[in-house]
Amino acid sequence: MDAWLDALRARLPGHAELLDALVELCRADERVRVLELQCSIARGAGDDLSDLDLGMAVADEDWERVADDLPARLRRLAPTVDLLAHAIPEWGSRPHRRLFVQYADGRQLDLVVQPAGAVSGRVAGAVVLHDPDGRLAEPRTPRSATATAEDVRAWEVLGWESLADAAKYLRRGSQWEALARVDQARDLVLRLWAVAEDVPYPAFGLTSLLDVEPPRLPDGLDATAARANLAELATAARACAELLRSAAARARIRSGADWPESAMADWVSDRLR
């Protein structure tokens, strides 16, 4: 870990400065049992504009007190524009707190705090910065690292649902609602494309496709973009439908799905024509 931080100090000294301060904070507070860095900077792919994606685990009985104290402690690390402490809706009732910090010099911190009892194993590409109990000693593959055939089925049908809504809003002349649905469909297409390309964390779609080297965006993606203009949106929706059919077909094969193309495909495509 020390060698990794030395290399980061040479390449991104501002980010390393924040990490050094956080490691010192953890070592000085026995309640903090884990500090882990993930995503682009951990992989060595980050730059000056990258945020620091961190996970912190705290002794179960103390995690809420530490989470309550952290905003003030994080603000002291550098001049701060704003800070948000909140719960991630998708995590439901799972105990945690997310803290987002925007520092005045452009650096960003994205830190999730949770009880230590909920943490074990490290994900691929993560950098362990503090782990006196060895909780992250063994590798762990999170559920989101891959997609199941059921995920593929859901993303395919949801993509056609979004395009069905887009067709409806185009008929009504509601360009902003149509634009939102085309954008939604494109996001689902990119999840399916990530499955087809065997890219890790396919649920993150565009981000995951851009994180691999070289990036693996599908041909024709530009044609799915449009302004809030009915004619442009109709063209973009049809292009998105073509990509959805292609991405879903490949994703079904990759995931081992044993069902055919959704019946929504022809039904929606006819309406878009």
Question: What are the SSEs and their pairings?
Answer:
Blueprint: H1 2-11, H2 13-28, E1 32-38, H3 39-43, E2 52-58, H4 63-75, E3 80-86, E4 97-103, E5 108-115, E6 127-130, H5 149-172, H6 175-196, H7 206-211, H8 230-255, H9 264-272
Parallel strand pairs: 2-5
Antiparallel strand pairs: 1-2, 1-6, 3-4, 4-5
Helix pairs in contact: 1-2, 5-6, 5-8, 5-9, 6-8, 8-9
Detailed description of the structure:
The protein is of the alpha+beta class. 48% of the residues lie in helices and 15% in strands. A six-stranded mixed β-sheet has the order 3-4-5-2-1-6. Strand 4 and strand 5 (108-115) form a beta hairpin. Helix 1 (2-11) runs antiparallel to helix 2 (13-28) and helix 6 runs parallel beside helix 8. The longest helix has 26 residues, at 230-255. The chain is elongated, with a radius of gyration of 22 Å. The termini are far apart.
Outline:
With 273 residues, the chain is of the alpha+beta class. The chain has helices at residues 2-11, 13-28, 39-43, 63-75, 149-172, 175-196, 206-211, 230-255, 264-272; strands spanning 32-38, 52-58, 80-86, 97-103, 108-115, 127-130.
Q: Main traits of this protein?
A:
48% helix, six-stranded mixed sheet, 273 residues, 15% strand, 6 strands, alpha+beta, single chain, 9 helices
Total strands: the figure is 6
Compressed to H and E, one letter per element, the order equals HHEHEHEEEEHHHHH
Estimate the mean pLDDT confidence. Answer: 96
Strand order across the largest sheet: 3-4-5-2-1-6
Portion of residues in helices? Answer: 40-55%
Described by strand count, sense and barrel closure, the largest sheet is:
6 strands, mixed
Runs in which pLDDT lies below 50 for 5 or more consecutive residues are none
Count the DSSP helices. Answer: 9
The coarse overall form would be: elongated
The radius of gyration over CA amounts to: 22 Å
Approximate strand percentage? 5-15%
Structural class: alpha+beta
For this structure, the quaternary state is single chain
Distance between the terminal alpha carbons, to the nearest Å?
57 Å
